[in-house]
G/U mismatch-specific uracil-DNA glycosylase (Fontibacillus phaseoli), 171 residues
Amino acid sequence: MNGVQDHLDYGLSIVFIGFNPSIRSGETGHHYANPRNNFWRILYQSGLTPRLYEASEDGGLLKLGYGFTNIVARPTRGAEDITREEYKQGRQLLRNKLSQYRPNVACFVGKGVYTEYSGSSKADWGFQNESVVDGVFDFVAPSSSGLVRMKMEEIVGIYRRLRNFISEELS
């Protein structure tokens, strides 16, 4: 099964970074394609997008200033199927992508994604005190997986902080 194509460009406001594509995303070729994943609803409810997008429109969000990538490209059933070697290689590839494209914000969709990338043992929600790539703000947001046990309002509230930051940066 193929990975899912990155959607990256220069001048982006946010690059959303996941662990790796789900099997469904690998089958469709689109980020956050599992119907039980709340990613697209979270973006809309937080005000990051003007309407509810579908996974098949992921490439179109470049026009809004949003990009997509993953720390590991190989689709799996779950993050527990990712090997240590894949993480090691993925960390370096991700640093290279962020260094090259320099988005305003690297939004890690899940604390585990951020801790695997940064090597930190823990992280708080929101902006981190230090960034891994100079000039790129690191923001940790809850996973959008349907398995997450946080209330949707709480998740949306954390993403809303990101929306507020981007709104202020652009004004």
Q: What stands out?
A: Residues 152-170 form the longest helix (19 residues). The chain has one domain: 14-170. The domain at 14-170 is CATH 3.40.470.10 (Uracil-DNA Glycosylase, subunit E). The two ends are 42 Å apart (CA to CA).
